[in-house]
Amino acid sequence: RKEVEQDPGPFNVPEGATVAFNCTYSNSASQSFFWYRQDCRKEPKLLMSVYSSGNEDGRFTAQLNRASQYISLLIRDSKLSDSATYLCVVNGDFGNEKLTFGTGTRLTIIP
Amino acid sequence: GAVVSQHPSRVICKSGTSVKIECRSLDFQATTMFWYRQFPKKSLMLMATSNEGSKATYEQGVEKDKFLINHASLTLSTLTVTSAHPEDSSFYICSARDPQGGWEGYQETQYFGPGTRLLVL
After folding, report:
1. CA A37 – CA A46 distance, rounded (Å)
2. Nearest CA of chain A to the CA of B68: how many Å?
3. Is B92 exposed, middle or buried (0-12, 13-18, 19+ CB in 10 A)?
4. Which residues of chain A lie closer than 8 angstroms to B39, CB-CB?
5. Who among A91, A100, A102 is closest to B107 (CB)?
6. pLDDT at residue A31 is higher than 80
7. Tens digit of pLDDT for each residue in A53-97?
8. How confident is the model over B39-61, as pLDDT tens digits?
9. Across-strand partners of A108?
10. In chain A, what residues touch B109 (CB-CB under 8 Å)?
11. Residues of B in Cβ contact (< 8 Å) with A103
12. Do B104 and A34 touch (CB under 8 A)?
């Protein structure tokens, strides 16, 4: 089983729609969870951290389910600028700074 | 936010030559830097953790004699790909922790450099 698994997509979604991404991770001791965004041929950029209580940042909502080892990202009212690859990222347990990246989910917003 | 730079942004070299990639933290001191590699349509894979003043820690399957890492100062880590071959062609990205930069999740925030695209002919 991959350490971090994502649906690779691609997701082709009309502008204004809501889209959801899912991710599962295998290390139950993981403590930190993130969604990164990576544009074509660029470095990944942190979109948001993910907490068990769930967190929201504007149109973006992230959820963590520790029992199921499952992370989600919801994008509402999608914009053309949201087109990118979204990476699910997990670290090890406490004191382990190493980040493990999923392969990413490719999203294209269609005008 | 903190800025991490990489140089060069892209490099083309002949098979058998060595290539050095620099990673710099521009406005903070980074005791730890990380080197990743990303092949087309694949995930970022951690190659090694670079610690200032000590030897790098390599991930399983990464040849330390081929990928030489030097972290001689708190703002600079270098990755040298020795005797490069076409299969080493990839996108190499570094990241650095900013000890003063706050936390994301349960760890200090990591900032990524813009990456170096290496093509070995």
Report:
1. 6
2. 19
3. buried
4. none
5. A91
6. yes
7. 888 999 999 999 999 999 999 999 999 999 999 999 998 766 667
8. 988 889 999 999 888 889 999 99
9. A12
10. 46
11. 41-43
12. yes
